[in-house]
Amino acid sequence: FFLHHYHHFLFRINQTEATMIGSVLLAPSTKANYDLMYYLKGAAAGGICCSITHAALTPVDVVKTRIQIDSVKYNRGLIGGFKQVVAEEGAMALTTGLGATAAGYFVQGWFKFGGVEFFKINAVQAMGEEKAWANKTPIYLGSAAAAETIADVFLCPLEAVRIRSVADPEFCDGLADGFTKMLKAEGVGGFYAGLGPILAKQVPYTMAKFAVQGSAAEAIYNSMGKSPSDLSSGQNIGVSLASGVVAGVAAAIISHPADTLLSKINKVGAGGDGPLFQRLGNIAKEVGFVNLCTVGLIPRCVMIGTLTAGQFGIFDTVMNSLGASKFHFHNPNA
Questions:
Q1: How many angstroms separate the CA atoms of 128 and 43, rounded?
Q2: pLDDT at res. 319
Q3: How many angstroms separate the CA atoms of 305 and 293, rounded?
Q4: Among 8, 192, 252, 277, which residue's Cβ finds the most Cβ atoms within 10 Å?
Q5: Residue 301 burial (CB count, 10 A)
Q6: pLDDT at 138
Q7: 112 and 50 in contact (C-beta within 8 Å)?
Q8: How many angstroms from the chain centroid is the CA of residue 99?
């Protein structure tokens, strides 16, 4: 009787806490009031948009990772790779690493999008609108680099489990099992074996993604002769989607060599023994520069172009639904 009422009491408390958190996030932000609540909404929107888009593209990522790890076996391109995986292992193999992907990229998106908003807005407030307008691209690049570095420290362990489970489907049954097995076999260091390549991949990728998207969106607004405040939320989301595709393809090309190295370094025994950078060097020599830049590039461009457009579109949608007025650079002389 006591336990029944105690569990009921805990359930009511959890419900109340969830309602309070939801109410706080849903409270409308005052326009141009970039306080802690604004950054929390930006972080929540970032976590949601990254988790949804990466989870939805898990099948593409499974095939892409297989092509990068074993290009001799998986040599029929993206569609052929899909057919191979399904024929050999069944359709469920395409969802390998789904849990690690959804969890990892929620955490990464929280720090990445929330961090970019934080660093960007604080840079503008420190420099003043006029100077910030003249230095938009450096602000985008610096904000993205700082936010992504923080995000990757949290993402790296989940990405290590995901890649290991895709490379070896027998490795684990879900995220928790994968963590336990990697920790026992390799210690904490095993989770961060790919931190160097993940930073080398994600930091330039995110810098390009935010800078190109910002420039592409500005070019679209200029071609229309409008500012974001002149358009409806639906039209602004359309601009985000279009500029996101351009940004995604540019970012995919820039980050692809490091993405290939990251996929290979998490394969057991890859690059031989020795320190991380020696192993990376061995893999790079073995694969060759041209292959590093081109193997799996088309599926990656398809994946990242779609994913980036989706992220910016969902981010804007969630921000609107949370009552937050998204920050845009403003030309004070316009």
A1: 24
A2: 93
A3: 17
A4: 252
A5: 17
A6: 95
A7: yes
A8: 15
Burial degree of 234 (CB within 10 A; 0-12, 13-18, 19+): exposed
> Can you count the helices (H) and strands (E) in the chain?
14, 0
Torsion of CA 168, 148, 305, 51, to 10 degrees: 60
Q: State the 10-residue block means of pLDDT for the chain, 334 residues long.
A: 41 46 48 83 95 88 78 79 87 82 88 96 93 94 96 86 76 79 83 82 89 94 90 90 93 82 67 70 78 81 88 94 87 79
3-state secondary structure 95-159: HCCHHHHHHHHHHHHHHHHHHHHHHHHHHHHHHCHHHHHHCHHHHHHHHHHHHHHHHHHHHHHHH
Query: Rounded to an integer, what distance in angstroms lies between the CA atom of residue 239 and that of residue 3?
Result: 54
Under 8 Å CB-to-CB from 32, ≥6 apart: which residues?
A: 325
CB atoms within 10 A of CB 190: 18
DSSP annotation of 29 reads: P
Q: Which residue has the tokens 């994913």?
A: 307
pLDDT at residue 167 in the model: 73
- What pLDDT is recorded for position 120? 95
Amino acid identity of 198? I
How many Å separate Cα 218 from the centre of its chain? Answer: 23
CA distance 267 to 108: 22
Structure tokens at 232: 């409806």
Question: How many Cβ atoms sit within 10 Å of the Cβ of residue 273?
Answer: 8
CA 203 from chain centre, in angstroms, equals 11
64: nearest Cα among 51, 80, 78, 76: 78
Which tokens is 296 given? Answer: 């799996």
For residues 208 and 110, what is the distance between their CA atoms, to the nearest angstrom?
19
Per the CB < 8 A criterion, the answer to whether 166 and 66 are in contact is yes
Looking at residue 171, what is its pLDDT? 79
C-beta of residue 41 within 8 angstroms of C-beta of residue 311:
no
Q: Which secondary structure element, helix H or strand E, spans residue 260, and what is its range?
A: helix 233-265
